[in-house]
User: Which sequence fits this backbone?
């Protein structure tokens, strides 16, 4: 379409339209009035650019019009119009104004007599509606003109103020602004888990031909599907969140809003928007056409939209969206606790799954005992659904709770570190025979530096008012083993896990006066300049041992 022709062509047609309007003094039929109105609309329209995407802002109930002209020569003049609603449904239509067969079509440079219009030019022209649509889908009209004509596009929003994009092109042979969709543009759900959904879609022909300038972007939300990237961005912004200005081109961390989280993993950039209406995720994954969406919430319905984006023009096309509901979170397996029975629980720190124990009270007072064997563990106890205790366990812990008969207690245990943790648990009425012996004020072992020799070490530990059995063990270790031995110690293991050669002695000890309930022991027969690991085990009436905190001591090199 040549601009020089456009300026010569348009005034002549507008002049003819003016003459026609003046010649219609009093409309005698409805069709004549409609014809006059359509001609009037051309005067209040804007020129629609060819080969460029135009953003059109619409006010509620106020139509907006654009026009363009086509010159048809010996061959047909093709054109296409693509309209993308960015919010609510709109109404739009295409009207064509064709010159009569006897009208010459355009002015010649030498013709200056444009003020006089011939009788043939005053003949009635044809104005007709060739297309109309109402909705919020992306629609493309492709036409072919055999006559020189003016086209009028009319847009109307009856719900609220909104905006749309319009793309006109008369060059249908040199490629497309919008990436091409496959013949089957559906998104297939090929896998559903508790927190993941796996999607796949057929490749766009544009992605296969232009891998460097085309990429797929996925939008995940909890509300509904979107028919265009423009509509998705509008909805997200109206909900109080903001998308990066260049969602498809360069998701820069400097463009993030406070309510956005950026995740970069395996060369994929994800933007997560937090809002009261749910979270919205955007992921661009290059030209891969299979993707597993991670970190979803169980038993939640999500909507998935895939957009094929041209990185050079930022134009996009939308696949047919789909939705899926993640699986319900499996109920944790609950183990029943019985009066006085000890349960040894091992927790996987990597999976971070809670272990649940249930106990039904047969007495008003209940006594829970926890012996931390290894690692760090968090315990949460509820009674009939209400929290009664929640804390991190350390060493040996007693919890006495008072309630009603037949109260149901739920004990949940979870490792608070990545390595495995373990704990022993017992529940019993308050008057039940204690599982563990009476414990001293401290379970630390003390060594006396001044009493160290090249061949012996003196250690001491606290006792109780109850006569109990104490067994001492020693183990020779290397200097680089000290930290590992202390960290990997299983505080629930008894002397049965130790080699017989490591046993030093066993003795009974108690004192009614706690101030004097201290005992010492000198271990002889050691090697000079050597590290030794010392352990003391306390046995109570039940026979279950309690291990004191291990102590590492190095004998003197020279004496």
Assistant:
């Amino acid at each position: 379409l040549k601009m020089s022709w456009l300026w010569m062509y348009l005034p002549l047609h507008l002049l003819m339209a003016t003459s026609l309007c003046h010649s219609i003094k009093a409309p005698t039929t409805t069709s004549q009035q409609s014809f006059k109105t359509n001609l009037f609309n051309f005067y209040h329209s804007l020129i629609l650019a060819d080969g460029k995407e135009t953003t059109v802002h619409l006010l509620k109930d106020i139509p907006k019009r654009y026009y363009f002209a086509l010159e048809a020569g010996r061959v047909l003049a093709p054109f296409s119009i693509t309209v993308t609603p960015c919010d609510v449904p709109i109404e739009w239509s295409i009207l064509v104004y064709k010159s009569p067969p006897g009208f010459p079509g355009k002015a010649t440079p030498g013709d200056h007599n444009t003020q006089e219009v011939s009788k043939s030019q005053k003949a009635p022209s044809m104005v007709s509606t060739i297309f109309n649509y109402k909705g919020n889908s992306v629609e493309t009209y492709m036409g072919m003109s055999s006559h020189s004509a003016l086209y009028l596009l009319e847009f109307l929003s009856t719900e609220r103020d909104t905006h749309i994009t319009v793309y006109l092109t008369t060059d249908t042979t040199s490629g497309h602004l919008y990436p091409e969709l496959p013949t089957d543009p559906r998104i297939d759900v090929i896998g559903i888990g508790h927190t993941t959904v796996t999607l796949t879609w057929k490749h766009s022909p544009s992605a296969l031909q232009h891998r460097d300038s085309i990429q797929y972007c996925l939008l995940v939300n909890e509300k509904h599907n979107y028919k265009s990237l423009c509509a998705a961005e509008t909805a997200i912004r109206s909900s109080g969140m903001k998308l990066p200005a260049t969602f498809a081109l360069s998701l820069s961390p400097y463009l993030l809003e406070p309510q956005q989280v950026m995740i970069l993993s395996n060369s994929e950039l994800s933007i997560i928007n937090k809002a009261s209406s749910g979270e919205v995720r955007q992921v661009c994954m290059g030209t891969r056409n299979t993707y597993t969406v991670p970190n979803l919430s169980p038993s939640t319905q999500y909507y998935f939209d895939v957009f094929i984006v041209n990185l050079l023009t930022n134009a996009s096309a939308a696949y047919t969206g789909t939705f899926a509901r993640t699986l319900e979170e499996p109920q944790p397996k609950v183990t029943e606790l019985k009066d006085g029975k000890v349960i040894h629980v091992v927790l996987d720190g990597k999976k971070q799954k809670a272990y649940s124990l249930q106990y039904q009270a047969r007495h008003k007072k209940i006594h829970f005992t926890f012996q931390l064997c290894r690692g760090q563990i968090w315990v949460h106890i509820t009674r009939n659904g209400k929290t009664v205790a929640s804390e991190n366990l350390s060493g040996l812990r007693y919890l006495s709770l008072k309630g009603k008969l037949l109260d149901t207690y739920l004990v949940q245990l979870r490792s608070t570190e990545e390595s495995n943790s373990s704990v022993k648990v017992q529940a019993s009425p308050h008057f039940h025979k204690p599982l563990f012996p009476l414990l001293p004020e401290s379970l630390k072992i003390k060594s006396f530096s001044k009493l160290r020799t090249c061949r012996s070490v003196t250690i001491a530990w606290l006792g109780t008012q109850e006569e109990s059995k104490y067994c001492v063990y020693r183990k020779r270790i290397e200097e680089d083993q000290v930290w590992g031995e202390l960290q990997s110690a299983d505080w629930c293991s008894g002397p049965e896990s130790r080699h017989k050669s490591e046993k030093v002695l066993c003795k009974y000890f108690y004192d009614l006066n706690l101030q004097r309930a201290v005992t010492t022991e000198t271990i002889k027969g050691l090697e000079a300049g050597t590290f030794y690991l010392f352990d003391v085990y306390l046995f109570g009436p039940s026979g279950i041992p309690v291990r004191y905190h291990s102590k590492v001591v190095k004998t003197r090199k020279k004496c």
About this structure: Residues 307 and 318 are 5 Å apart (CA to CA). The longest strand covers residues 126-135.
